[in-house]
Amino acid sequence: MASPGMEQLFDFQRLPKDPLNLILLLLYAPVGLCLMLLRVFIGVHVFLVSCALPDSPIRRFIVRVMCSVLGMFVKENNPHLRDKNVKVYICNHVTQFDHNIVNLITSCNTPMLDCPPGFICWARGFMETGIPSSRLELTEFLRQYCSMQGSLPLLLFPEEDTTNGKAGLLKFSSWPFAVTNTVQPIALLVRRPFIPANIEESSWILELLWTFFIPFTVYQVRWLPPLSRQDEDSSEVFANKVQELLAKELQLVTTQITRADKAEHLKRKRHVAPHVNSSQTLSTASSTISPGFLGANSFADDAKIAAMAKRVSEVLPDVPLSIIKYDLKKTHCIDTTITNLLEKAEEMPSGSGGASDLLSSSIRATTSGSTPALKPVSNTFEKSPIDRHLSLQERKEALYEYARRRYLEKHGPNQHSCQ
Is the overall model pTM greater than 0.70, yes or no? Predict the structure, then answer.
């Protein structure tokens, strides 16, 4: 099976694309809002109960029933495979509440990564580890924790970040497999109607409110047999074996995409410039796009654009540089830009005002007095569309031929103008 790409591993849009599901979601929205408000009130009581009662099977049962009222249904498969002597559980990561779900089944601790300790860390059910300077330091801390008598098992997510749980698994980090030599894999499946279980770059509070809004979310926890490291296996080899096992159980694909790759992909998506409609007229663009915006475009080579704009300016010296650079950013070709500017000048009617008249008058001033003789053009409006088109085409060809000849005189015929 082919390895999925970034867009298949994560969900970036919350609302469904299917029109039928979107209509059903809109019809359900009034009910969902009322349900969300009610569940927020109940959720406060669930939090208080979980804080007041000591950790025990009775407490987990009560909280699990109350979470069902909140729309979070938990199913457990193969509970007989759970080994109470194993100190590390390894699970795939789908939502920001996976550790809470597993805690409804069995007591365990999940260290909070890359977050300072405090009330929020404690309230969300994470184990405070301070701020370790490296994964090596964190591994040593967890190794000492597991060696303590009576310590609860650790629930670790070697993907270190969430996926949509539909296409593949992120590459497992090796540090969780250096804590102990025996781990127990847990396969987690999350299903809910209408919307995805998790949206990238969404806060945990927003995800919690959407969980309360949706009628139900089903979490299916599957226990797999414990797996021990072979003597010759490194932590990375051991991690790959567990990843393959979980992917096979979940019917997913293992990938080489890491948490860092995901972060870089999200960063690029945030900085993609909005697409400019190619049919937008030059007059509108020049009045709305400022030079500051052009300079901020990280995907354009400013030095190359400036050099090309200088050459165009030598052929059409009266045209503003901002207009030349804007067209070059779209074409990346000197000849094409000169053609576009000449065509725009001919197509724009006189007296339209603003940048349109500026561009038209600039180009006509550049070519006046030296433009090749054109056929006499009637001052009257031609009745035939063919005659009007031929008249316009002749003027454009004459202007373009003059500009091209002037460019070749300056730079020679062997210069490459399109890059």
Answer: no
